[in-house]
Design goal:
Two copies of one chain form a homodimer. By secondary structure, chain A is mainly α. Helices cover 68% and strands 0% of the residues of chain A. Chain A is built from ten helices and no strands. In chain A, helix 1 packs across helix 2, helix 6 crosses helix 10 and helix 8 packs across helix 9. Chains A and B meet through helix 7, helix 8 and helix 9 of A and helix 7, helix 8 and helix 9 of B.
Chain lengths: 202, 202
Amino acid sequence: MELAGARSGRRSGPSATRAAVLSAAQRQFAELGYDRTTMRSIAAEAGVDQKLVGYFFSSKQALFVAATKLPFDAGKAIPHVLGGDARQRGWRLAQLVLEMLENPETGPRLVGLVRAAASEPEAARMARDLFAGEIWAPAAEALPVTDPALAVSQIATQILGLVMSRYIIRTEPLASLQAEAVVDLMAPVLQRLLGGKQGDER
Amino acid sequence: MELAGARSGRRSGPSATRAAVLSAAQRQFAELGYDRTTMRSIAAEAGVDQKLVGYFFSSKQALFVAATKLPFDAGKAIPHVLGGDARQRGWRLAQLVLEMLENPETGPRLVGLVRAAASEPEAARMARDLFAGEIWAPAAEALPVTDPALAVSQIATQILGLVMSRYIIRTEPLASLQAEAVVDLMAPVLQRLLGGKQGDER
């Protein structure tokens, strides 16, 4: 990939450089994992001086968090899942999760986030803060169940388990199933956690 | 930890050295993760020459697999879970999983295995082979459901999700729950996968 760095002139400018660094960081964190991605390797791929990476992002951790902006808008996803037919909540969430994980652009970023969180306690803390602020808190507010925070923890468990088993460890036959089949497997468990069946609707 | 290496004399001998290397490797893989554990750091902790580590284990991957022998006997665990009251299968499996994960000796080894598998594709492949040979194949043979291989994949998903959310990312409130409460949360999902409810018993 040939990306114009700040050195190649005014036109590309700081925001283009920052974007090139972020893009290289996203790709490398997803593919190499947190530990093996370095400020240097990111600078090299972005075609910029390593010092410039340090100028935009004080540390690898900071760059990691910046690079792993969630590839969806929780403010839209939550009403989409919880609105409409209450019996289809689990199915809509499973559908949304699979769409993001199977998408060639967003999938590797999400899998990379899980990889990074697994390999490094600092990254795990940041992933937790990222999820908690952007998804868990708003989701827990919206969930029509008696213990929404616990339900959100359990939903996270289902999604993290899927990422590990289908996309990272690749257990068969789950890894080779069509996405639609995986949606059908996940939907009933998610439906219960989303208040669809347990009789504890608010 | 002061462990007698081969250099300290005949008495400790090769098997004691090998055991010291394995013990250091188990601790380091669990605590540092796969990437940051090195043959050198293992040799240092075991108090042996690095060449001796290479003599016993040809590569870090080989040492990883040797160090992560599963801390339970699937030959006993499977009949324990599937035998007895069929309505309690999910509860017995959840109980067994939590006992191993909460145990201060076996827990970090299992969590370390998941960490390592997440951070390195080669380790993921080895973890898959290890699980497949020692647990999944015998479990799939014994499971009284219509698609046992898929059920085993889904059980793996549940356990991997729990390890990620409670022990690695530590999502709350799941991370702070008493083990018994986690058993109660997991049991119904596992029960369905173990053929306890879906009406597809053999």
